């Protein structure tokens, strides 16, 4: 009964659009009126997931999705006092989504387990931080620093390029090892980068060591300084869209197929003419560049960075996003990153705050140590175990591209075919 | 005219000599079989031609050019591809994508062009898909286009390996036990396919095979290895009656009985 109704619904495009429009309007209004409600915010975001599962034209889906994240979410959230905190979470989600899309290229497509991925984020962040603050005066023989905020836009591609170079530098020695050994070496690399950044204050002060780099210039656009989370949200959004574009375009290209071939069987891939080293390095470099771009944004947004933001735990969290979402699956990875960040920064903190309030007013007493915000790692641990046991392929498992067989057949029949005899002498092959 | 010349090829793994001093010459557009008991060094021999292993000494010449020292993917660019004894498909990818990977070195698209959405690259991709479909039709896998390669039945997986290999338009195709595990009917259609590939695709075929019926039926020339050494070579009829070959396969007593 329910199933037939559901199938009917899946065929009914107008019905879907009406339903979806109603949902979006209601939830937008809901958040607009209950301005500080985290639940309303989440229900509005859920519309994106619903949109993903609707059977609509892909272009309509993209247009609707963009409308929601670029217009409706910021608009609906703008009323309450939590506006900036909502947008802050939104920005973080976008930053981490782009990073996990990058890691997905390395781990999901090319099958190279990288446990030190945050290093590239750090490289991108430090690149802007050093030149966007007075820090560069310590070692640069020329120029006056900080560079003005208008140069920030240049640092997005620069961050990408420098991270890509580091990706290649990591790749060259690391590609001699495989599997578990690769994981250990990348873990080491991640830690080396962090420790080096933490200690590069002598003999030449490049990173200001454990003191970190303070007062990083805010980006400027047409003379306006960008300082609020609601403004950074749009910068992150553009890079996020760029990252999705690159990842989806490459997935079904010659390079994407080469990555997956190397992942599935290295020896066969080589025998088919795929250069192993070049292909793997491309994965490292392109994956790292996503992180590098977002690193610059992160540094500008935080206005202060030190090496403690780039610990091994951060690498793990990005990896968790990829695994939770579904390795090799672009929509999965996006969902995975969103779930982890929202759970971490909004849901758990929100529950903790409610509990603290309740215990302060004496309704219940929850010891501070049991506050959900402090059990973050515990909760992720449980989640991972559950996923490893019951949903090994992630929230939205990777799906292979489906080719249109009848179209291929038609085109193959229309063209000259050297694999077939002329129709008159048909039938020598099986 | 000889397309492939192998000169005194030797491979040692530490103290163990896997193949020793093998020389052979393969005529263009012929079907050559390499046979021998298990452990004779046949697959090692293939692995040296495709640069998976570097020979300890000796030389491999394709149309007079040495292949020794190249990387495996470069050997493919020179026009030699292979199938594998233990099937090595890209099992997570679809059947059509496997064939597309086989075309890798023929496609010119650069990833930067892919990102820029250049029309030439879109066109190339479309043509590649159609050609991949033609190849699948040719080997009889057109019903499995969107199936994951790992889910195919065994015989179909062997055919897909051949499809993937011919997608690179090789000059020489190395088949490592193509009929292993096939039933007589499948073997028969494989034999037909190999015959057809030679004439239609103008490819030179070298195969390792244990199915003697198949070997005797399709080979122009046979090389026999035993314990890493070349013990006999000749036309199928010569090999059938060669004393050393019978010894190698069945033992000395059998040959004296015969």
From TrEMBL, chain A:
Originating species: Sporolactobacillus shoreae
Cellular location(s): Cell membrane
A Gene Ontology molecular function term of the record: branched-chain amino acid transmembrane transporter activity
Pfam families linked to this entry: BPD_transp_2
Superkingdom, natural source: Bacteria
UniProt KW keywords: Cell membrane, Membrane, Transmembrane, Transmembrane helix
GO-annotated cellular components: plasma membrane
Entry-linked InterPro entries: ABC_transp_permease (IPR001851), LivM-like (IPR043428)
Segments passing through the bilayer: 21-54, 60-77, 89-109, 115-131, 152-175, 232-250, 281-300, 312-343, 375-392
Bilayer disposition of the protein: Multi-pass membrane protein
Record protein name field: Branched-chain amino acid ABC transporter permease
UniProtKB/TrEMBL annotation, chain B:
SMART domains: AAA
Keywords of this entry: ATP-binding, Nucleotide-binding, Transport
Source organism superkingdom: Bacteria
GO molecular function, one term: ATP hydrolysis activity
GO cellular component terms, A-Z: plasma membrane
Record carries keyword Transport: yes
InterPro entries: AAA+_ATPase, ABC_AA/LPS_Transport, ABC_transporter-like_ATP-bd, BCA_ABC_TP_C, P-loop_NTPase
Domain ABC transporter: 4-252
GO biological process, one term: L-valine import across plasma membrane
Name recorded for this polypeptide: ABC transporter ATP-binding protein
């Amino acid at each position: 009964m329910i199933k037939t109704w559901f199938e009917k619904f899946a065929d009914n495009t107008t019905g879907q659009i009406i339903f979806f429009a109603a949902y979006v309007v209601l939830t937008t209004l809901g958040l607009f009126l209950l301005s500080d409600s985290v639940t309303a915010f989440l229900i509005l975001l859920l519309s994106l997931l619903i949109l993903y599962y609707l059977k609509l034209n892909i272009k309509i889906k993209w247009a609707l999705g963009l409308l929601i994240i670029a217009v409706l979410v910021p608009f609906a959230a703008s009323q309450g006092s939590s506006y900036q905190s909502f947008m802050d979470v939104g920005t973080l989600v976008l930053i981490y989504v782009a990073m996990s899309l990058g890691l997905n290229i390395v781990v999901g497509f090319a099958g190279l387990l990288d446990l030190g991925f945050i290093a590239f984020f750090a490289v991108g962040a430090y690149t802007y931080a050093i030149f966007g603050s007075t820090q560069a005066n310590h070692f640069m023989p020329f120029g006056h620093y900080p560079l003005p905020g208008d140069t920030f836009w240049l640092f997005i591609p620069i961050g990408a390029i420098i991270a890509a170079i580091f990706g290649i530098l990591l790749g060259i020695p690391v590609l001699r090892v495989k599997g578990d050994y690769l994981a250990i070496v990348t873990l080491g690399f991640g830690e080396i980068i962090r420790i080096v950044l933490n200690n590069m204050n002598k003999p030449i002060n490049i990173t200001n060591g454990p003191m970190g780099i303070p007062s990083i210039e805010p980006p400027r656009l047409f003379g306006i300084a960008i300082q609020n989370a609601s403004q950074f949200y749009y910068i992150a959004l553009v890079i996020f869209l760029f990252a999705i574009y690159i990842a989806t375009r490459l997935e079904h290209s010659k390079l994407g197929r080469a990555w997956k071939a190397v992942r599935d069987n290295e020896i066969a891939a080589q025998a088919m003419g795929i250069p192993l080293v070049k292909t793997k390095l491309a994965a490292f470099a392109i994956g790292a560049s996503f992180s590098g771009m977002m690193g610059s944004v992160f540094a500008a947004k935080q206005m202060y960075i030190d090496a403690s933001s780039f610990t091994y735990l951060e690498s793990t969290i990005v990896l968790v996003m990829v695994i939770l979402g579904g390795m090799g699956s672009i929509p999965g990875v996006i969902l995975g990153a969103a779930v982890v960040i929202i759970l971490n920064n909004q849901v758990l903190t929100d529950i903790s705050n409610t509990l603290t309030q309740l215990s302060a007013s004496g309704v219940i007493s929850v010891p501070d140590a049991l506050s959900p915000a402090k059990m973050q790692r515990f909760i992720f641990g449980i989640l991972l175990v559950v996923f490893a046991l019951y949903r090994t392929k992630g929230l939205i498992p990777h799906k292979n591209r489906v080719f249109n067989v009848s179209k291929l057949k038609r085109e193959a029949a229309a063209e000259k075919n050297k694999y077939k005899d002329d129709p008159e002498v048909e039938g020598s092959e099986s | 005219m000889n397309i492939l010349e192998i000169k005194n090829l030797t491979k040692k793994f530490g103290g163990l000599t896997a193949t020793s001093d093998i020389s052979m010459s393969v005529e263009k557009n012929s079907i050559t079989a390499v046979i021998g008991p298990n452990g004779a060094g046949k697959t090692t021999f293939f692995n040296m031609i495709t640069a998976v292993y570097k020979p300890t000494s000796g030389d491999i010449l394709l149309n007079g050019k040495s292949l020794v020292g190249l990387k495996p993917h470069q050997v493919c660019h020179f026009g030699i591809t292979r199938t594998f004894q233990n099937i090595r498909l890209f099992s997570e990818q679809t059947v059509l994508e496997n064939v597309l990977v086989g075309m890798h070195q023929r496609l010119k698209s650069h990833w930067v062009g892919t990102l820029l959405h250049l029309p030439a690259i879109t066109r190339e991709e479309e043509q590649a898909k159609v050609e991949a479909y033609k190849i699948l039709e040719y080997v009889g896998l057109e019903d499995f286009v969107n199936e994951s390669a790992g889910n195919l039945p065994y015989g179909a997986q062997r055919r897909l390996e051949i499809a993937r290999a011919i997608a690179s338009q090789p000059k020489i195709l190395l088949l490592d036990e193509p009929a292993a595990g096939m039933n007589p009917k499948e073997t028969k259609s494989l034999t037909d396919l190999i015959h057809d590939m030679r004439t239609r695709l103008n490819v030179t075929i070298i195969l390792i095979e244990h199915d003697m019926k198949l070997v005797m039926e399709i080979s122009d020339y046979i090389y026999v290895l035993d314990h890493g050494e070349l013990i006999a070579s000749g036309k199928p009829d010569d090999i059938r009656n060669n004393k050393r070959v019978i010894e190698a396969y069945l033992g000395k007593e059998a040959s004296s009985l015969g």
